[in-house]
tRNA glutamyl-Q(34) synthetase GluQRS
Amino acid sequence: MAGGTVTRFAPSPTGPLHLGHAFAALTADRLADAGRFLLRIEDIDRSRCCPEYEALIAEDLHWLGLTWPQPVLRQSDRLPAYRAALDRLAELGLTYPCRCNRADIRAALSAPQEGAPRIGPDGPVYPGTCRHRSMDDADEGDAIRLNAARAVQHLRLGTLGFHDEGLAQDMPLSPAGFLTQIGDVVLARRGMGTSYHLSVVVDDAAQGITLVTRGRDLLDSTHIHILLQQLLDLPTPRYHHHRLIRDDAGKRLAKRDDARALCLYREQSMTPGQIRAMLGLL
Ligand code: GLU
């Protein structure tokens, strides 16, 4: 494989791309420099994804002047790879089935002895209600969680910290910090066979990504990804979390902010150069 930095832009086709996506894609392309910029379609949540949006993603990115190698990796084609990773973690005794829904978790956390719930990257840190359960009694209605306490005992390195190149800052986290601040994350969502965290880690390794670029909203998830890389013997790439594009009120743009959809700017005959200028990328 040719040397050089390999980056990726990994949108979910759940709505039109907006200015925040343009910034993420252009940043990934710029930081690939003389290496390779890849596109990956993150469509594991089939109920929310739609092929029309996937086609629009390619159109918008081409309009911005980006190109990428074919074929594009689509996560919905990768379920066997995620299954293999999950099986490996299960063989290590690091997983358990969980049937709690959000209301169950809220109720368990409101017990007086629990104190104020800690909020991790995926919401309240899971109180461990199903931790005693064995994979042998897993059924269709279960999610699969990581037993974080056991997982940290398997760490190859004593730390889950990383250096963020976007913030130019070290982001330390000890194994003990992982347990209190993050905890037993979901590896496979109910009926889905995988989760964002598991798929991203498996795919970044499979695609040979050497520099992960993404928004700072995902900064806290990176410790989870580093733990999974160590458990699965996968390399840890470099990380660059970039600033988020906000609306006039200072709120981060979300998929529903269709007013800032790239296709609308295109219809209004704006040029890619004007988009770059709006994003401060000239
Ligand atoms: N699919 C994620 C998103 O649309 C990005 C995941 C990543 O870059 O790790 O926000």
